From TrEMBL, chains A, B:
Protein name (record): AcrR family transcriptional regulator
Keywords: DNA-binding
Coiled-coil residue spans: none
DNA-binding interval(s): 39-58
Ranges where the HTH tetR-type domain occurs: 16-76
Length: 206, 206
């Protein structure tokens, strides 16, 4: 799938078409120049629309960021919850969580950077809502690790700290991943799944 | 040490005093608003100077970013080289590299964010120089891991990938670390040193 098709798929749930074009344009602009250096006029221009047409869909630049952040965070939470509720052993579910979470951050690294680095620009109410989604993501991974500790498959002295480190390792893929690099998103996901199983002291490994 | 004293210490090598004030002001402005949204006028204002006085020390905004990035990257490289050249076993040296590298990213998270996230804003020549320093940092950590593989202390199927993951895990501390959080920089360093020894399959652990 090309970059263009992937972008369209990523925002498929945003309707109508004009709103989707604005969101796509905003992600690109925020990623290139940062949120504060981007104007609604820049975004409208990139989407081939007038500032007045933008205003029909989004009253402020912050509303655009909020939509982008919400879609990104809900996707992340879905990925991690699906892994938590899977059928396999704790090790299989943790590996699957890491594999899919990493793949998302690699494939959608432009969006992921905006989602991860511009949290501070959200208005207070929106910020609180997004922080809630992040807590839920953290809880999903923590639950898998706790399952593994309970079955004796994992050996984790500090569950909260290890959960934080696992998520942090995956999220930082968005910073360094390049489509021109040596590893595909799937390969990074496999490598990281193996490293994370080591981090939780998975006994059955190798 | 208070935040103010820590900031002064961080840039102690930048002289004269006016240049140091400008660098400190630029770090704060870039961290809050992003590089592209910051003007040299903003920076001069924060430093209590006129734009003309700024111009004596830095001809462009990019020169300020280059100095900040250079100081930050050289410090990181020093930390990792010192660990590589230390006396201990590979496990002790790797733990020390992680401990000190993490502590730096936690204590100086504002600077570290600018250093890590604004690479793309450097001019081509400056960018190439900084990328060279990053390669040297990567090589220092890789050398410790290779030492451990050679002595049989570590079991690492993918040395390059694991080196990348170790550095990435440490660097992302700058994103999430908060001075108001539950863990001190030293505690995060200890936690991460243990997790990294697991990532390299250190046999002697626990």
């Amino acid at each position: 799938m090309g970059a263009e098709a992937k972008r369209a798929e990523e925002w498929a749930d945003v309707t109508p078409d004009a709103a989707r074009r604005l969101v796509t344009a905003a992600v690109q602009a925020f990623a290139e120049r940062g949120y504060h250096a981007t104007t609604t006029r820049d975004i409208a221009g990139r989407a081939g629309m007038s500032p007045a047409a933008l205003y029909i869909h989004y009253k402020t630049k912050e509303e655009l960021l909020y939509q982008i952040s919400g879609v990104g965070h809900r996707l992340a939470l879905d990925i991690l919850r699906r892994a938590r509720e899977g059928d396999g052993s704790p090790a299989e579910r943790l590996a699957e969580a890491v594999r899919t979470f990493v793949r998302w951050h690699a494939e959608h690294h432009t969006t992921a950077r905006v989602v991860q680095y511009e949290l501070g620009a959200l208005g207070e109410e929106h910020h609180d809502e997004i922080v809630g989604l992040r807590r839920d993501s953290d809880a999903a991974v923590r639950a898998i690790i706790e399952d593994g500790v309970a079955t004796g498959d994992f050996d984790v002295p500090d569950v909260r700290g290890t959960t934080l480190a696992v998520l942090s390792l995956c999220i930082d893929v968005a910073r360094w991943f390049s489509a021109d690099g040596k590893r595909t998103p799937g390969e990074v996901g496999e490598l990281y799944a193996g490293l994370v199983l080591r981090m939780v002291g998975y006994a059955g490994q190798e």
